Amino acid sequence: MTPQPKAFSADLLSLLACEFGADLLLDEAALAARSRDESGLVRQPSAVLLAKSEAQVVRLVCLANELAGQGHAFAVIPRGAGTGLAGGCLSPLGANGTGVVLDLSAMNRILDIDTQSLTATVEPGVLTGDLRAAAKAKGLFYPPDPASLATSTIGGNAATNAGGPACVKYGTTRDYVLGLRAVLPTGEVLRAGVNTRKGVVGYDLTRLLVGSEGTLGVITELTLKLLPHPKAAGCVAAVFADLGAAMRAIIAVMTRGHLPSAMEFLDARCLGLVGDLLPFAVQGDESALVLIEADGDPDQVRREIDGIAAICRELGATNILPPATTGTKEGEAGREAIWTVRRSVSTRIHEACAVYIPEDIAVPIGTIAEMVAALPGVEARHGCAIFAFGHAGDGNIHLNLTAQDEALRPRVEAAAVDCVRLALALGGTISGEHGIGLVKRGLLPLEIEPVSLRVQRGIKALLDPQNVLNPGKIFPSEEEEA
Ligand SMILES: Cc1cc2nc3c(=O)[nH]c(=O)nc-3n(C[C@H](O)[C@H](O)[C@H](O)COP(=O)(O)OP(=O)(O)OC[C@H]3O[C@@H](n4cnc5c(N)ncnc54)[C@H](O)[C@@H]3O)c2cc1C
Fold this sequence. Notes:
Elements: H1 10-20, E1 24-25, H2 28-33, E2 47-50, H3 54-69, E3 75-79, E4 99-103, E5 110-114, E6 119-122, H4 128-137, E7 140-141, H5 154-160, H6 167-170, E8 177-183, E9 189-193, H7 205-209, E10 218-225, E11 227-228, E12 232-240, H8 243-255, E13 262-266, H9 268-274, E14 288-296, H10 298-314, E15 319-320, E16 324-325, H11 329-352, E17 355-362, H12 368-373, H13 375-382, E18 385-391, E19 396-403, H14 409-425, H15 444-447, H16 450-463, H17 478-481
Parallel strand pairs: 2-4, 3-4
Antiparallel strand pairs: 1-2, 5-6, 6-10, 7-11, 8-9, 8-10, 12-14, 12-15, 12-16, 13-14, 13-18, 17-19, 18-19
Helix pairs in contact: 9-11, 13-14
This protein binds flavin-adenine dinucleotide.
Residues 37-38, 77-85, 88-89, 104, 124, 146-148, 152-153, 155-157, 159-160, 162-164, 213-214, 218-219, 346-347, 433-434, 437, 470, 473 line the site of flavin-adenine dinucleotide (FAD).
């Protein structure tokens, strides 16, 4: 059953309506639209503020603090586009269950693209794809490219430190946030970071807020680093007889002096789901697909692509598509077709399976072959099916654990814990990019030692003494633990 929100008192409702007028949304459709993200959880909020300005954000957070002091607590939950996979933008559970979702999607202006300093200044609701397109139109490049880039926001990307295929060469969102403005959980406005490429003055609060999943501040503006746009890019798509062979090829490419701009893979189960989109037929039940991209000057791209294709051949690729490079219409179309296949995978898995738990462990690159070799054992132990794909060049493997019957959910959950333990045993981490939110809170102590956990909780308590901002995310709130 869907947990219902605690009803707001009539006084509180009229106070908020008086403050925010038509920007406070209370109708069923508005609440239902903010009661989900892509985690599969459903938590209906009590109200939604569709913020249009930083001043409104400040006012909402200040009210939450004032009323908490008077015993009328409500939580403020920042939300971008709701594409998160961890439940981070959903209303909280527990005693403090009354929540106002703070929807930042309407604060979506690109304020400036500075072609001399190579920076962009944006509001948090700008869609990632829109910023990339606007930068490209000026010959500039914003590299972070989560597969959700057409629908996710820069604010959400910063709050989750999103990465994507380009991460293997260019790093994650955190590497591009030079500075930001944020409304702290007390309602004060913080300006952190710099407009410069470098800066080492004081503690790095920018990097603290990036990846904090909306628990330490509401990001209201970001200054982002841009790069010159690469002149060309090319993609090698190679099929291997099995996943192990594919992973060995990936390690070989990485260790023989190449620096691809993307390095992705799809296992046989994923290939089965997106087969209709593939521009070629895949032979063999166990086959795996590797996508490797290089960018830079056209000559350099050609050399890299040839070298990478040669390594794939040497490592036993059973089929290598003719390289698709930018510069020609066919090349662009071929490249786009391949990336469409890659970006469609998680949606197709979600649609195809009754039970779907997306894990995104990351392991040291040298151990990815070992990690994937352990997966059939997990499937056999728990009776579930694992779809594996993702950012092989970062060792960030999206393990989608599935079953076709809701009754099997506990077994799928046990399999997920098994996978996480395997990743940790290999020196990995439980989340490469999706974050902890609500869904992975229970796993946190498996990775984070008690001292670190105490420091992290201390930071939260220092910045948010009344626990009004996104309570219960990352760590259970004290009320829940009581
Ligand atoms: C098909 C698909 C593919 C995906 N691929 C990738 C991928 O390749 N890489 C990847 O990293 N992720 C991926 N994701 C996950 C998701 O898109 C990212 O986590 C994304 O960064 C979330 O952005 P959002 O705007 O939807 O944020 P939301 O889902 O709305 O929120 C996510 C978190 O950020 C917080 N938040 C949002 N805005 C703000 C703000 N302005 N200030 C403070 N906190 C805020 C929320 O409270 C929440 O904790 C994918 C998801 C889907 C559905």
